[in-house]
Specification:
The protein is mainly α. It has 2 domains: 85 residues, Uncharacterised protein YqeY/AIM41, N-terminal domain (Hypothetical Protein Yqey, Chain: A, domain1, Orthogonal Bundle); 49 residues. The chain contains 7 helices and no strands.
């Protein structure tokens, strides 16, 4: 199909559908990727995705200004994404209490968009293996050292509360000499 200038017109068919979970391997979350996705959403006239990505970009800029850094790391952007998702979750709870089904579906859809950018958290077995690996590398047998090492090795993928509980349980076990 040709457009008015005789060039080939895009049909909009791509590798994934907007809002569908990605089948690709984890791609690093960067500010440049957010900007590209925002531009693509604008071109696709996906108002909901544009709105969500604009709020994320604004929150990321706020964090950059607050920390006085030129660029945010992936872990910081994941943290911003999770914070925005929690806001949507809280708004969804209030909408349920108020009986506003339209806002419930809107917040669920926005949360799904946000969660598509966040790497999957480590599961129970993966988390235990990661903690044991940290301890096996000769790190200190203290909760703070273990948690710091986990956050460095798996940015944005560690649930702090679950990791802390599991690390305390593992550290309580007698050390193998």
């Amino acid at each position: 199909m040709l457009d008015f200038a005789g060039r080939r017109k895009r049909t909009g068919a791509g590798f994934t559908t907007p809002g569908a979970p990605s089948t690709l391997a984890h791609v690093a979350l960067t500010e440049a990727r957010l900007a590209q996705d925002l531009t693509a959403a604008m071109k696709a006239r996906d108002a909901q995705r544009v709105s969500v990505l604009r709020s994320v970009v604004a929150a990321a800029k706020h964090v950059k200004v607050e920390r006085r850094v030129p660029e945010l790391e992936e872990a910081d952007l994941v943290q911003v994404m999770r914070r925005e998702a929690r806001k949507r979750e809280e708004a969804e709870e209030y909408a349920v209490k108020a009986g506003r089904d339209d806002l419930v579906t809107q917040n669920r859809a926005e949360r799904a968009i946000l969660e598509s950018y966040v790497p999957a958290p480590l599961g129970g077995a993966e988390l235990e293996r990661a903690i044991r690996d940290v301890l096996a590398t000769g790190g200190e047998r203290q909760i703070g050292a273990v948690m710091t090492a986990l956050r460095q090795r798996y940015p944005g993928r560690v649930d702090g509360k679950a990791a802390s509980e599991l690390a305390r349980k593992i550290l309580a076990e007698p050390a193998a000499s």
